[in-house]
Design goal:
6-stranded mixed beta sheet; 18% strand; single chain; alpha+beta
């Protein structure tokens, strides 16, 4: 599956855990449950992170490759996600489908997801069977078989997935057009699933090149969370992943986004029940965990606007002014590419996207002019932190948090540091963020204008859609 980022329905393909407000990055997983995190690095460069959680005899096993759509180029967009599909099509030692069949026979479940920043593969099962899935995953890290016949069948599944998730979804089409307008040079502009013309022209050789380029132990992170002993995990990893030879990684070229020098707008007309609006401001992201105060201020501002059911956008625009059926704010402060602060929503009956645009901007301006009270800020922080603590119940959720952070360049300990920094954000910093970063010259606006829906057209999920 393709991982979307946050509750603004990004319409990639699917999502694994919400990262709304970017605050899923802030869950203090390093202290959850039994708490201990141990790290190793094998001789071939594979980084291993083990998190102990002995509450049940289960384990989450994940391999994260630092290779997502942000590493793609024109002509082969979508190849990261296509290869994710092909990773289930057999190795020199396993037949097509045998990987998942083996995991299922152990009583476990497995899947994968692709994002702009990474591609991840996971299994959840009994801890006693960990060595078996480590052997399976290490095998396909080194011995994937990519046949032309299997590729031709699977690329049809991916293209149908794209039709279902994007081409036949009005908001999906709008989001895709919006991102391609907001960014010109940076590959953040590409849809994770790829442009249809690139999928149609893609061959198994393109997927093979992607695999040969990025699927190397020194470009991967192994995350294991659950009822395990770190020393035993290291021993098992050395016997399995340790046999995989490193590769010469391709040099990553900088693809810097030119400075935006004026508001950008894009319109999409498509069959839909309601109009829809997306607005995105180019804003700073988090690089230095202890110094980048602006990122934390923007994260808290997002929570002030839309961090809980009684937050400002829902209360003012939906309940009081009745200008919107739904209104939201989102900001993902971490990632390998540039960041946007999003405002989005659907106008209420009798209202237009233009009305909603002004209403959303007015709420940001209100914070810029009047600030937020200590009481409101305390309530927002409490809601925000509580929503993250809840995720500690899942070993899978803990593994995702660790994998996300480590793969994009942070350390496991940074998870705690981030949440501590969030706690120190002041009302003055939130007000300053609202004043500083909402320059219209850094704004992109996408508007959906609905066309009549064909009552005879059905949009059913394609067969075989699981990744």
């Amino acid at each position: 599956m393709i991982k979307a980022g946050f509750k603004l329905r990004r319409h990639c393909v699917a999502f694994v855990g919400s990262v709304a407000l970017s605050m899923s990055m802030l869950m203090p997983t390093a202290q959850a449950a039994d708490g201990d995190v141990t790290e190793y690095k094998l001789n071939n460069g594979l980084r291993i992170v083990v998190k102990e959680d002995h509450r049940s005899p289960t384990v989450a096993h994940m391999v994260w490759y630092k290779a997502g759509s942000i590493d793609e180029y024109n002509g082969t967009t979508g190849v990261a996600h296509v290869l994710e599909h092909m990773m289930f099509k057999g190795t020199k030692n396993l037949k097509v489908g045998e990987f998942s069949q083996t995991v299922a026979a152990l009583g476990g479940r497995d899947n994968a997801f692709t994002s702009r920043d990474y591609t991840a593969y996971f299994q959840q099962l009994q801890a006693k069977d960990l060595s078996k899935v480590m052997a399976l995953e290490a095998d396909r890290m080194a011995n994937l078989v990519l046949s032309e016949s299997e590729f031709k069948k699977e690329i049809q599944v991916v293209m149908e997935e794209r039709r279902y998730r994007t081409d036949d979804q009005a908001q999906g089409k709008l989001y895709e057009a919006f991102m391609a307008t907001a960014f010109q040079a940076n590959p953040t502009r590409y849809p994770v699933i790829g442009w249809m013309s690139d999928l149609q022209a893609m061959t198994y050789k393109d997927a093979r090149k992607w695999y040969d380029t990025w699927y190397a132990p020194q470009n991967a992170v192994l995350v294991v969370v659950g009822d395990v002993q770190p020393a035993q995990v290291k021993t098992m990893a050395e016997k399995t992943y340790g046999k995989v030879k490193p590769k010469q990684l391709e040099e990553r070229k900088p693809q810097e986004e030119p400075k935006q020098e004026g508001i950008r707008r894009v319109q999409v007309k498509a069959p839909a029940e309601n109009p829809y609006l997306i607005m995105g401001f180019k804003v700073p992201k988090l690089n230095d965990v202890l110094k980048d105060r602006d990122a934390y201020s923007l994260a808290v501002l997002s929570a002030v606007l839309d961090g809980y059911s009684g937050a400002r956008l829902n209360r003012e625009l939906v309940q009081n002014q009745k200008v919107a059926l739904q209104a939201g704010a989102s900001y993902d402060m971490t990632g390998r590419g540039p960041s946007l602060f999003y405002l989005d929503g659907a106008p209420a009956a009798g209202q237009t996207v233009e009305n909603l645009e002004q209403a959303l901007l007015a709420q940001v301006k209100k914070v810029a002019d009047e600030g937020v009270s200590e009481a409101e800020l305390a309530r927002v922080k409490a809601q925000l932190i509580a929503s993250q603590v809840y995720k500690r119940d899942s070993v899978y959720g803990q593994a995702v948090e660790i994998g996300q952070n480590v793969t994009i360049g942070f350390e496991v300990g940074d998870i705690d540091r981030m949440i501590e920094q969030i706690k120190t954000v002041t009302p003055q910093e939130v007000q300053y963020a609202a004043q500083k970063f909402f320059d219209p010259d850094q704004l992109t606006v996408g508007a959906l204008y609905p066309l009549p829906i064909d009552p005879n057209k059905k949009n059913a999920p394609p067969k075989g859609l699981s990744h």
